[in-house]
Design goal:
Blueprint: H1 9-16, H2 23-63, E1 71-76, E2 79-84, H3 85-128
Antiparallel strand pairs: 1-2
Helix pairs in contact: 2-3
């Protein structure tokens, strides 16, 4: 059974009214758009760093099986250098620590950005109601 909801006089009046977009509203909308784009960039960067971290952890596990006397090919820039196992493990640990720091910074930036996005959503929806769509 379908039911039809009748619009009240207030609903009809407000449906016909358009909320004026003030300069500060437009600035918030523009800020929201920029932050939304930045969020996508940060998510991609974070995904790449997490993949790098995963790769480093895999290499670290493989190095545990290496013989102490082996020279390990270690990539520095575009070249591979053969290093003693302990030196390769030390460089790998430093790289892992650096990636961990980058992941943490990206996660914090993303969290701060999402908090600001949420605040802007609340303010813009409060001002424009259903006449604005900020869902992504």
């Amino acid at each position: 059974m379908l039911s039809h909801r009748m619009l009240s006089k207030e609903d009809e009046a407000s449906a016909g009214e358009e909320t004026e977009v003030r300069r500060e509203d437009q600035e918030k909308i523009n800020r929201f758009s920029r932050l939304h784009q930045r969020e996508a960039v940060l998510e991609e960067q974070l995904k790449a760093k997490r993949k790098d971290k995963e790769d480093l952890e895999e290499v670290s596990t493989e190095l545990e099986l290496a013989d102490e006397d082996d020279l390990i090919p270690y990539k520095i820039g575009d070249s591979f250098v053969h290093l003693p196992l302990s030196e390769a493990q030390s460089l790998l640990a430093a790289s892992t620590e650096e990636i961990d720091g980058e992941v943490t910074r990206l996660e914090e930036s993303l969290s701060d950005l999402r908090e600001e996005l949420q605040q802007l959503k609340v303010a813009l929806y409060a001002r424009f109601g259903r006449s604005i769509n900020l869902e992504t």
